Automatic annotation (TrEMBL):
The lineage of its organism: Bacteria, Bacillati, Bacillota, Negativicutes, Selenomonadales. CDD domains: GT4_AmsD-like (cd03820). Residues 175-339 form the Glycosyl transferase family domain. This is Glycosyltransferase family 4 protein. It comes from the Bacteria. Pfam families: Glyco_transf_4, Glycos_transf_1. GO terms for molecular function: glycosyltransferase activity. Keywords: Transferase. Residues 15-169 form the Glycosyltransferase subfamily 4-like N-terminal domain.
Amino acid sequence: MRKICFFTHSMNNSGGVARVLANVANMFSDSGDEVSIIVMDSCGESFFRINTNIKILTLNNGICNSIVGQFIGAIKTVYELRKRIKQMQPDVVFAFWTSRAIIAIIAGYKLGIPIVACEHTAYCRARKDANIIRYIVYRQAAAIVSLTNEDAVRYKKINPNTYVIPNEINDLEIRKHNNSNEKVILSVGRWSREKGYDLLIEAWNIIANKYNGWKLKIVGDKEDLEFVEEVNAKIRNYKIGHTIEVKDATLDIMDEYDKADIFVLSSRWEGLPMVLLEAMSRGVASVSFDCPTGPRDIITNEYNGFLVNANNVKMLSEKIELLIQNNELRKKIGVRANKEICEKYNREIIYAKWNEVLNQVV
């Protein structure tokens, strides 16, 4: 039995990192490995389902907003994590997210335990100082896992032991087409600027009152309250509140996809968007900004979905309108999307990729 440890900030949220980590941890656990997750916050719970034999261990170092406080907190986290790794003696540590991976690599220095840095956002989004630190520290990683081929090219310049592993989608099934007739245009993700809901509202405003009965539905936690108010101000200004429904994050997200006719990803940047993969896996015709990075790895434009120029509100609106007008096109796009996602992102394929990394570094 292999001992596998994961390290991240928190599992008690509905974000993509927590969802991906839960999926990967469950895959290893289902295969008979002993799995533990170390988190930086004080909550030992997971928003997403994890196997009952997976342990969540907390460092509980607290959070400080001052620069000095953050620096001291980082040193304390390195110390506590190093102590925990020495006690556990895992065969490998998979560290999720740039800052957590940097901490884990430093904490594991000369312990003889491989640390794998697992990236989950676009390479270009890191701050300049973080890029410099990442460039230095990631050279000491046993391996780097990138979500996309585009970013893997950059990571290989830092560390040649770089692997591309996309996100796994569970609950896959071949579907003839999405059967919804709810007239719902769905977007899923936390309310933060990177998700681009302000741009989505601008696009929706162009056509909101042209198609009776159609509504835009946004599902996600309100993380950035200032951004939430900015988006709500746009909705009030455009007077389109009656065409928009907002709902908090839910564990029954697949039900939301199944009730949707169209899915829209309006992000300014991504890693490899789980929500886009999930929507397409359910046969929902999808439109996405061609943002860095991820959507272009998933969507073949005009075949299994639509890619539009990043931040181009007018083009986004036009593709949404095209799908509203053409039910047969929605079905055709949805069928192709479902088939490709089932073939490329199923559990067996993704687990084999993670297992390959594990076998290479252990």
